[in-house]
Design a protein that fits this description.
341 residues; mainly alpha; globular
């Protein structure tokens, strides 16, 4: 049963439409947290947070982990998790460098090879989880080491410069601002729109929610739960490679450690955005907003003149408060759907 159906209540002989809280409760919660945090930063550091440059900086750096967080939302809604994507970021970018920098192939061929690498990694993760019923938390820890080790072997632990004169098209696509707007943010917004439509307006998206809510019921309804999970893992693999390329082009260099440090930010964005750790519910819009909250915390703490050691404390506080809010809103929605009040 969908949230809208569950939230509808009878008025006389007709069913009243679900309330705004029922339909958009999780998104409203995370937007509220984001606005409260932004106001706190504006008050603490008005010179910084009233300057457009700080927002341009967020728009450049947040997509480096936020884009893969949007796709990871699909996997978490199905009730699974993928911890291997940082290594996929590195492996896909390494393949791009091997094909273009060392192999001399054109950049577009390198992009295809990198994308296929992401597909292969997603297929492997999805097959091991869906077909062999191996817990995703366990197996993606293993494939994380597998993919990282393969990347280090292929590159012999060395990096590759990704300068403008060698890759002008890549810099145009992934680094150069468009009409003064960071192109990284435009990519993230574009992917958000595509994935929102995929999650909320397609059969695949409906199956993602159904599998995460009750896998047994999904199978009885003829949904191939394994195939749905594999597709979700492939989506993460492809966007992880894209984020690897995006971050490498942004830094003008591919480092063998590409992807390190993105794991916690990405996962925090998904759960902070209201996606349930138990599966069945989630929102890419919530993940989108949460990613920018995560990206703003460090800058806000430093700009406010607070010791940078308090960053972890702020991360924990924001996540805990947000999860509590999401839980209270969820309880309110369920009570409203049952009682109509």
């Amino acid at each position: 049963m969908t949230g809208e159906a569950a939230g509808a209540r009878k008025v006389g002989k007709k069913a009243a439409p679900p309330s705004l809280l029922t339909r958009y409760g999780s998104q409203m919660g995370i937007v509220g947290v984001g606005l409260a945090m932004w106001l706190a930063f504006v008050i603490a550091a008005p010179r910084v947070f009233t300057d457009v440059d700080i927002y341009l900086a967020f728009a450049e750096t947040t997509p480096l982990f936020g884009i893969v967080a949007l796709s990871l939302t699909f996997v978490v809604i199905t009730g699974e998790i993928d911890l291997s994507f940082p290594s996929v970021m590195a492996l896909g970018t390494a393949v791009f460098c091997l094909v273009t920098y060392y192999g001399g192939a054109p950049w577009w061929l390198g992009l295809i090879a990198a994308g296929l690498t992401g597909v292969a990694c997603g297929l492997l993760n999805g097959f091991l989880v869906a077909s062999l019923n191996i817990p995703s938390l366990v197996i993606t820890i293993g494939t994380q080491f597998l993919f990282r080790g393969l990347e280090l072997v292929l590159m012999n632990g060395t990096g590759v410069p990704l300068l403008v004169d060698k890759y002008p098209q890549m810099h145009t696509l992934l680094r150069e601002p468009l009409f003064g707007v960071p192109v990284q943010a435009l990519w993230m917004v574009g992917i958000l729109i595509v994935e929102w439509l995929l999650l909320n307006r397609t059969r695949f998206g409906a199956h993602v929610f159904l599998v995460g809510d009750n896998q047994t019921s999904a199978r009885l309804m003829g949904v191939n739960a394994g195939r749905v999970k594999i597709k979700a893992f492939v989506l993460v693999g492809v966007t992880a490679v894209f984020c690897g390329l995006l971050s490498s082009i942004y830094g003008y260099y591919f480092w063998p450690s590409t992807g390190d440090g993105s794991l916690l930010n990405t996962i925090a964005s998904v759960f902070l955005g209201g996606t349930s750790v138990f599966g069945g519910t989630g929102s890419v819009i919530g993940t989108f907003v949460a990613a920018f909250i995560i990206g703003a915390i460090n800058a806000g703490i430093v700009s406010a003149g607070v010791n940078a050691f308090y960053t972890q404390l702020a991360f924990g506080l924001v996540i805990v408060v947000s999860v509590v809010l999401q839980t209270l809103i969820d309880r309110r929605i369920r009570r409203q759907s049952l009682t109509g009040k």
